[in-house]
Amino acid sequence: MSGYLKLAGKNLLRHRTRSVLTMLGIAASVGVLFSVLSFNKGFTEGLAVELERTGLHFMVVPSGCAHEVAALVLHGAVIPKFLDTKVMAHVTTTAGIDLATPILVAQLPDPQRGKIDLIYGVDMSVLSAIKPGWEITGKIPQQDNEILLGYEVAQHEKLQPGDQFSSGGGVNLLISGIVGLTGSQDDAFIYLPIKTAQKLLDQPAAATAIGVKVTDPTRMVEITDALTAAVPGIQIVTMGEVMNSISNLAASARALSLAIVLIAILISAVGVMNSILMAVFERTQEIGMMRAVGASRWDIFRIILEETTILSLSGGLVGILISILGSRMIEAFVRSVMPFVPSGNLISFDPVVAAGSVLFIFIIGLCAGIYPALKASKINPVEAIKG
Fold it and tell me: 310 in helix, strand or coil?
């Protein structure tokens, strides 16, 4: 450690409380900045993973709001409109289609249990293709009276494969398997053959959407254009459009968060400037004495600037540490206020994001220290010693 750096460190330790409070102000700003940037990166990557898990390239839905479709794809949310499954005939005969399945998502009240079940009707023959990441205990339903339970449903009802499940329509169903924990909305659903779901809802030809996978994704535009021309009154939403829809919503929240972070960083910079400036005023005679015994203006400028450097870097590192230690609590809060957040850990240590955050506050700290350093370097030694 150079002599200048040691001297700067000793000067800061002479006023420990003030230095620690200034450093904590910087730490709070950097912690929030790191959390926002890390969350944004984790959100984008998590969203892409969840869309990949659907195993589908696009959804055919009734004309409506794209945000409803995004909620259907990612949440399994219930949307109020139904699609006639006759559309399946047009979809399956379109060139370039690898697989297509009607999907029926609905809420099914059960007056006897006093609960509402979330049911997800789908063609069970393509389930392993559209949910490739699932680990199933038991087997995929083969008969119309068999169902698959999401992890949370099975845990809450204490059910195992082979048990009977009484549906809201008074129909007893056999549990053929249980989906392993996914950490997503998939854990809350009861999966059953599409025909069984239509029968329970008394909607024999209804589907919430038709999920489609194409053989060659580079031909997706050609395929969707052909379907739109052949079947009027439908809307086709690709997974890329779903991702853009969710990303746009998240971008608004991110812009607001970054604006607040920048304001907090500016306040921290003013705090650093104020703290160092106070130290310069208190040490005016001392600085004058240093100048009188041979210290140059550059020596004084450098010592003061290194004090701000120590405060900024230590605050930045402490802020990163605090945000990592509190990441689970931050994520829990964000999940409670945002309508959709991908599953998995969204805030984690990323060396690039951490280094960028510390570098940013380092530059801000340097800028905040220039004025006090210039002020100190211009102190006249004779006037300072006279007091």
Answer: helix
